[in-house]
Write a structure and sequence with these properties.
The protein folds into 2 domains: 193 residues, Rossmann fold (3-Layer(aba) Sandwich), CATH 3.40.50; 158 residues, Glycogen Phosphorylase B (Rossmann fold, 3-Layer(aba) Sandwich), CATH 3.40.50.2000. It has 14 helices and 12 strands. Strand 1, helix 1 and strand 2 form a beta-alpha-beta unit. It starts with 5 loop residues before the first strand and ends with a helix.
Length: 374
Amino acid sequence: MDKRKRILLIAMPSIHFKKWVKHLSASGHELFWFDILNKGAQKDLQSVRQITDWKRRKLPYMKGEYWLQKNYPFTYQKIQILLEKTASEKLQEIVKEVNFDLIHSFEMFHCTYPILNGMRKHKVKWIYSCWGSDLYFYARDKKRRNKISKVLKRIDLFVADCKRDYQLALELGYRGPVIDAIPGGGGIEISDLNMDLKRTIILVKGYEHKFGRAINVLKSLISIYSQLVGYTIVVFAAHDQVIKFIKEQDLPIQFYGRHELTNSEVLSLMTKTLIYIGNSLSDGIPNTLLEAMSRGAYPIQSEVGGAISEVIEDGKNGLIINNAESIEEIAQKVVYALKNNDQLLRARHINLEIIKNNYEWKVVGQKIETLYQD
């Protein structure tokens, strides 16, 4: 390994980020985490020096400030520096205290763009990891597109979980090297699988928000409910509106709230799953899709700008939803899958090889370690 480095990580404290840190913790580097969202110290980041509780007001809170922040975020950002210490200001304090070899930020609008002004004043190497819809969706908006371009022109290395986003980054102004895609979740630990088809769960990712369209999946399943005798519909990570919808149907659909299951419990559920369905308008390559594939579930996933086609060949190792808003299309995909048991079993073998070769924990760990070498 190259010399021990001082690395500043800037990210929200998500499970995916914590898995990434787990890889780095064994690398020997000196790790720091800037809690840019001010969420507080994390018990499961003990191997990292945590920089938390940093936000300070410059002026007393004013009536209407929260409303302005929520409804006119761009206007609020212009006056924020007058009201409170900004992330960019705190970053400059941190960099003055510690001589970092590199800074790595994860996700664009909460964790990367806010530090741009501070990073322009320093020549330290900067890595940015693109998450989900950072480029694919938000670059459609002119104001956000300009912000993205400014960041991409400053960073030294761009990291994404799919080839699609590397091409988008180049179109938006990135001029650094193009490397292999690396899943943001840090990779998957493979377990022994029961490869028969005696599974009865149809598992649905329960996101319903700006991008997620779980309710469309549930409507599609309800439309073919007479064909689902003997199967159990289970929804995990369900948003409140999804839970409300399920309760209104008076059907035996099992559900778990947004944070009700741990990642280990979700993986355990996936080992009993016959069909996994993820449906959204925008994303990268979802970690839950890869996890479902690794546990032998047959994936039915909405396409988002070509990213899903990088891991699923439609009709071979899964099915692709072309229109996330089409209840009829989703229903047709489910019926097709249930009638083609041979394909489900073949897909299970194919997907396990895909995961082993590209997304297995040690494979991804080696890619992550390489990122921080000179």
